[in-house]
Amino acid sequence: MTRAYNFCAGPATLPAEVLQQAQEEMLDWRGTGMSVMEMSHRSDEFVAIAQTAEQDLRELAGISDDYAVLFMQGGASSQFATVPLNLMRGKSPADYVNTGIWSKKAIAEARRFGEVNVAASSEEQGFTTVPDQASWKTNPEAAYLHYTPNETIGGLEYDFIPDSGDVPLVADMSSSMLSRPLDISKFGLIYAGAQKNIGPSGLVVVIIRKDLLGHAQSGTPTMLDYKVIADNDSMYNTPATYSWYLAGLVFKWLKAQGGVAAMGEINKRKADKLYGYIDNSDFYANPIEPRFRSWMNVPFTLADDSLNSAFLKGAEERFLLNLKGHRTVGGMRASIYNAMPEAGVDALIDYMKAFEKERAGHE
Amino acid sequence: MTRAYNFCAGPATLPAEVLQQAQEEMLDWRGTGMSVMEMSHRSDEFVAIAQTAEQDLRELAGISDDYAVLFMQGGASSQFATVPLNLMRGKSPADYVNTGIWSKKAIAEARRFGEVNVAASSEEQGFTTVPDQASWKTNPEAAYLHYTPNETIGGLEYDFIPDSGDVPLVADMSSSMLSRPLDISKFGLIYAGAQKNIGPSGLVVVIIRKDLLGHAQSGTPTMLDYKVIADNDSMYNTPATYSWYLAGLVFKWLKAQGGVAAMGEINKRKADKLYGYIDNSDFYANPIEPRFRSWMNVPFTLADDSLNSAFLKGAEERFLLNLKGHRTVGGMRASIYNAMPEAGVDALIDYMKAFEKERAGHE
User: Fold this and answer.
1) Where does L-glutamate bind (chains A, B) (predicted)?
2) Exposed, middle or buried, B166 (CB in 10 Å: 0-12/13-18/19+)?
């Protein structure tokens, strides 16, 4: 068996150690005679697995008791509706910042449940930058302020936490959760689809300040009411138990790596290496304003688009997989989440050098 | 490693062969160098896994091209809202039949989205029977007629498919899907949480007649609009890929067993054995009218409730697990889904006999 370096944006590579443990425990979790996915979600064993995962996440991310942590289903796309359904609270508008495709999706869905004010947008700049916060047209009476700290497709990442004053700050952290230290206390709500830095798809983690619970609009499906989920410890119905367990294994792995502070250093080093090589090359390019370049998703183009398929073919031969850029952006994209080892980035750079040398005739 | 006989109502036991295959493929699916849970849902490999699973389900259940098959998230509890949101179609009321706790949950949630008519109920009979269809007060103008073919908690199962005339028939088949042959063409919509007969929790399969697509109420979250999910082959967003893959392995296993016709024979034999033993004993009892006894969930009581914990302790010592009845019903419950081998039922009966002999002084 050989493991590939998988640069997929999500579902994404997971730590080999996590998969090995899941493999060992697949048919018999610690002598119980059953797989975790066969356990009652109400059993002592599974409740312990679930609570340990939550506790480890709280420790890793520094989440205080002022916040509830929810393990929900439906991915971030469901949260695009769930957030306005729960947080509009009879107020108007909800402020949104538009910095890319995922921002736009969140905005389009929110408009179905209330008035949305796009407080700022970098669409005219091709989403290559984050608008200066001084220019944002936020509303002090807004229900909340929503932004997308890391745009998975565009490869754009905020290098600051917006100041929303007394308005609850809401963030889609699907592709940046746990990638570096973060002051959770600045947020009203954070949500993150699991399939990048947390675990398998089919799970979405929600961190919500408790005073924001209990305000769902009438007509909110019960399964999308944060208070119902919080009051039932995310077991109002059967949760995605196996995904929850795997997320717990990832949290343990993160703690063993030294937590998010250590991951942040490693992730910065990985990103710096890759962007550094791209910037020093005339053959590869990345269009994002340097201070807003994502540590997680690195899009890049080749000097000649007609070389794209040859680049991808050669990469696959070296087991460097899923480097094709998103269909709306083109070019390449290397997603280098927590579970992508630094050696994977080194292998990618080595290949990029070799390809450039061969195709561009560079020394 | 010893595998238990796990009688949990859900998440439930899975075929050992399925878990073994998942274990083997955990770190490297067929030489791809990655786990299925690390694959892009848009990759050729995963799309093939997904399509094969759908095709196998269509073959197993006999689902024609008049129906879309959707792989959604949120379990049956999400469907309790999704069904009225999509199928009310400006009509009123929706007819519901109340035969137990899961019917009642479906009814309570539907009332939040439209008028509900409870056309029949066996609540006064303690949910020990299914009301004779001749007595149902259905409305010929109803948006749909909803029923629960198998009540997982009560252990009550319809032995007929209701005749709903031109009104679409909707069924929560979470705990009876694929347990015996079924004429799908009689239904407008079937939904089934996966964690009993299909796979792990976090996945819900929906089979919907295509003419019922495209009628979602305004205010329906996009992720709950059946037409959006159908138009995008259940990949409007990232689906629960690993659960989908596991469901596909279960479908392959079912085909290898001979399909639902063979499973129906085995399931009937398993149920007949267990009910037969209960009926011939003065020590154990089941309250359900015999023709409506569930083949999947067999609740039973002991002659003396004070023996319950001793019964459960002895069962656990024999690795017969999760026999405790639902907290709302008490007593015991043996869930004997497709993946519970006949030998597991035999082992349970052997233990019940030994316990009865010891505690009741019977020969």
Assistant:
1) 42
2) exposed
